[in-house]
Amino acid sequence: MSATWYECKVKYRKVDDNGVQKVTTEPYLVDALSYTEAEKRINEEMSAYVSEEFKITNIKVANYAEIHPFENSDRWFKSKVSLIAYDEESGKERKTSMYLLVQANDVKEAFDNTTHAMKNTMGDYTIPAISESPIMDVFPYFSGEEGDIAALEKFNAIKASKPEVVVMDDPLELEETEAEFTIEEDVEL
Questions:
Q1: Distance (Å) of CA 150 to CA 109, 129, 146, 157
Q2: CA angle 38, 153, 17 (to 5 degrees)
Q3: N or C, which end of the chain has less CB nearby within 10 Å?
Q4: Which distant-in-sequence residues (6+ apart) come within 8 Å of 25 by Cβ?
């Protein structure tokens, strides 16, 4: 069963970098079965982070097909992935788009992480757009059962760890990678 993600906007007082308190509204993502459960879960999650009052101003279903946390990345990016299918009857190419939420530090890393997330895809695909998401944090659902506790620990460990740096020894390999990156003219940088 696939997860249904709800984007919840939460309004609360926050201390900024200058030490000044200001009211801010930030979006968070929760995995839930209904709007009611999403509201309950965001209340529980935000109670752990916010000591003062907060208000949930909006809850809506998010259109993410998959969520991919990556190590030591601090921002979330929305990647549009177009799956390419060939219609044998008409001989035409059809594209079906889906959105992934990937964690990264910049757009290039988000592109790399999206490619990594799609590496086991059997069909052809393109990545026509990547943009930074306003999502502050993601709260997946875990039931508390033994297997879910391990999954929660793994999810949190991935969110908190450092990304792998790939060092290329072969300069031709770098040129091929750059060429592949520049071919994707539709990628928003």
A1: 27, 33, 7, 10
A2: 70
A3: N
A4: 9, 10, 11, 57
| Helices of type H across 94-170 | 107-117, 146-160
pLDDT above 50: residue 175: no
Q: Going along the chain, which residue ranges are E strands?
A: 5-15, 21-31, 54-61, 66-68, 75-87, 92-104, 124-132, 138-139
pLDDT of 143: 58
Cβ proximity of 20 and 32 under 8 Å: no
Length of the chain: 189
Q: What is the pLDDT of residues 97-106, one digit of tens each?
A: 999 999 999 9
Q: How far is CA 185 from the centre of its chain?
A: 22
Per-residue pLDDT, 150: 65
The DSSP secondary-structure symbol of 80 reads: E
The pTM of this model reads 0.71
